[in-house]
Amino acid sequence: MLEQQETSAFARRIAKFLERVEYRRADSPRDKEAIYRLRYEAYSREGYIDANAKRIFSDPGDDHLNAWLVGIYIDGVLASSIRLHIASRTDQFLPDTSPFSDYIVPRLEAGNVIVDASRQTSRFEFTRAYPFLPLVTMRSGFLAMEYFGADIMIGTCRAEYQPAFRRLFGSRTCSDERPYPPLNRLHVLMTYDCKAQWTDTRQRYPFLASAPQERRALFGRSSNASHEGHGELTPSSSAREFGTKDSSTTYAA
Fold this sequence. Notes:
The chain has helices spanning 2-17, 29-46, 101-109, 124-129, 133-148, 162-169, 194-204, 212-219, 230-233; strands at 21-25, 67-74, 77-87, 114-122, 152-157, 172-173, 178-180, 183-193. Strands 1, 2, 3, 4, 5, 6, 7 and 8 form an 8-stranded mixed beta sheet that branches. By secondary structure, it is an alpha+beta fold. It has a single domain (2-230), classed as 3-Layer(aba) Sandwich (Aminopeptidase). It starts with a helix and ends in a 20-residue tail after the last helix. The relative contact order is 0.16.
């Protein structure tokens, strides 16, 4: 009972905090560069990458038509970012397909819609001030999950971070540790079963829910496309919204 009360209070705190948060798709070169600089700052601080004179970290995955670069702004300041790729066929790019093809390819061949979350980074000062910032950042992945009617959400992490993802989302580890270039640390693949787990997750964290207009504003087109791409990335051109009967309501405390 006490744990449920603590979780509820925590969820209300984040729901209130979201009033100060803006989720912004990076379309312009300026917004993209800001995210690349944020990544460099975070990854170089952790020793994930080597230093470079431009102090920017980007890779070819940023340029695909099915890539969303999302900046999370707190009081108008870029605090964190995440990159999301959506795919339902093997000819569509996912960053994690190469190192974890044994898990991902069979699911794409089966027509599963996959949200691949990567490059989740944040500014050090915001992480210290707001320990729940990773949850606020990852909320964009759940918006994508609902917008595209995803079956699976995947992401990678270092082995020592697995317990946190299991505790927060019930994520499951689906691989051993493997090289994950261009980052110079071994990673494991973690997965989230959208259809089986979303109802429980939403009840625990009601702030993860969203309104259709919020999802459409963020995912109506990608960071590199000038047109709506829902029908190209999912088996059906019609939206496959799912979940509880009131899953389209906005987040609430």
